[in-house]
Design a protein that fits this description.
169 residues; six-stranded mixed β-sheet; binds magnesium ion; binds guanosine-5'-triphosphate; 5 helices
Length: 169
């Protein structure tokens, strides 16, 4: 019997970068082009089995639309992990991700582990280079991964990497 630990995780990032799609890919292993934009926030829980313990993730997937911005502190405030998502085909979404990093660092749980996650790597029209994002992540002391919720590539690896980085208790 592995011991279990509960981790509160939040998804942040501009609208339409694919936050909900990444969560659905991880939790249900499915994908839809026709997913609805999130209203407020959506809660999901799931488990990640690590080498010697089970991480129970309580996931808050927030709405990226600006009108919901004022609600986000109640979701990130006592999170121990955060995915800050951008779309690799959108330079604006990468800038917005950096704003989220600043907001979390100044207003959020001080020791939360933050992963910068570039989504939609299945698309050809990439504008945010992997090396640029990786360098920013390194300099800012963030975990970093890229994925595609559509193909599933990199999604599990990103969750495992963040889950493993969170101290138990
Ligand atoms: P908000 O809820 O408004 O904050 O948006 P979101 O970040 O949750 O984005 P959502 O998951 O709703 O996805 C937005 C659109 O991008 C949808 O049409 C998805 O099907 C599409 N999408 C999400 N992930 C990917 C991906 O990896 N590749 C491609 N090609 N499309 C994706
Ligand atoms: Mg959403």
């Amino acid at each position: 019997e592995k011991e279990t630990f509960q981790f509160k995780i939040v998804f942040l990032g501009e609208s339409a970068v694919g936050k909900s799609s990444v969560v659905i890919r991880f939790v249900r292993n499915s994908f839809s082009e026709k997913i609805e934009s999130t209203i407020g926030a959506t809660y999901t829980n799931t488990e990640v089995s690590l080498d010697d313990y089970i991480a129970k993730l309580q996931i808050w997937d927030t709405a990226g639309q600006e009108r919901y911005h004022s609600l986000t502190p109640m979701y990130y405030r006592n999170s121990v992990g955060a995915f800050i998502v951008y779309d690799v085909t959108s330079a604006d979404s990468f800038v917005r991700a950096q704003d989220w990093v600043h907001e979390l660092r100044s207003q959020g749980a001080k020791n939360a582990k933050i992963m910068l996650l570039g989504n939609k790597i299945d698309l050809q029209e990439r504008v945010v280079k992997e090396e640029v994002a990786m360098k920013y992540a390194e300099e800012s002391n963030l975990l970093y991964a890229e994925c595609s919720a559509k193909s599933g590539l990199g999604v599990n690896a990103a969750f495992l990497k963040l889950a493993k980085s969170i101290p138990k208790e």
